[in-house]
Amino acid sequence: MQTDFLGEARRQAEICNACRYCEGYCAVFPALHRERAFSDGDLTQLANLCHNCRGCYYACQYTAPHEFDLNLPRALAEVRQESWKRHAWPNGFAGVFDRSGLLIAVGLVVGFALLFSLARGLRPEEGEGFYAVMSHGMMVAIFAPAFVLPLLALAASLRSYWREVGGGPLRLRDLLAATRSAGRMRNLEGGHGDGCNFEDEGRFTHARRHLHQAVLYGFLLCFASTASGTILHYVFGMEAPYGLFSLPKLLGVPGGILLSIGTAGLAWLKTRADRDLSAPAAWGGEMAFVLLLFTVGSSGLLLYAATGTGHVGWLLPLHLGAVLTFFVLTPYSKMAHGFYRMTALTREAAARDGGQV
């Protein structure tokens, strides 16, 4: 589907392909330089490979006021945002979070928190810890579909994306290569390993890379904490609450700290960066997502610190409301970018290996 965004990205990609000055900057440029002409699928793939580090823009001799007026980070960001909307399933929800992200996130968190507060009237006669406030069965009944259904929506979206970018049979070695790249945040190291200058043309730093890693590993630790608690409950019959030196707490507390630090840092960097080097219309939605993820991590830590006090009564609904909002919005918020980027890195690993062309 031809759009103005795709047409502008194609124009800029063709100029970059002729110049090749930025060849070693990130995964975008080797992929770009393999092509002689750019289909819509090629541009969608390039856009989702881009990590918006902006190094290519600051190094480019053809940015404004040059007549070529190149701004590749923005061009790819707009194609990337458009691709997420196009592939989102169900499609009717696409783009809503970009337009009113903060309002939607706050409204859902408050609304869900109020519902959880009202549901306290159905709490069990007996229970320890959080289960004295809300039953385990109710939490499972609410969060199981809220976790599974967004994953199914994402799977449908990624399947559509994979077809558009010409992905072939999925190979384990390509997936492992993509995982290594994502885990290291290799594409945020900069062309010379000095980091990227996301916030300032003359300032190279690894801050954005490290903050992304904090968010990634913090989120994975929190997920592992929840998974370990589920296994302890259903397999070994060990019910919450768990002590500080239990596996759920040893994973969850560091995870919450990393998640809170990472999201707070990314929000701060985002306020310092030039909005014109990304998709300006999506800035509010992206910031709303970062703040939502910060609320999930920080409210979880506060809830643990408040265990055994009267504050649990209002902190638990707030935390559960934030977590439920996060799950529900995952396919339509900036959270989707992690799934698309992993898919793009997998496609790129296959192309480099000669498995796909």
From TrEMBL:
Which keywords does UniProt give here? Membrane, Transmembrane, Transmembrane helix
Which residue ranges run through the membrane?
Answer: 101-119, 131-154, 214-236, 251-269, 281-306, 312-332
Q: Which InterPro entries match?
A: Citrate_utilization_prot_B (IPR012830), NarG-like_sf (IPR036197)
Note the superkingdom of the native organism.
Answer: Bacteria
Q: Does the entry feature the keyword Membrane, yes or no?
A: yes
Q: What is this protein called?
A: Citrate/tricarballylate utilization protein
Query: What organism does the UniProt record list as the source?
Result: Poseidonocella pacifica
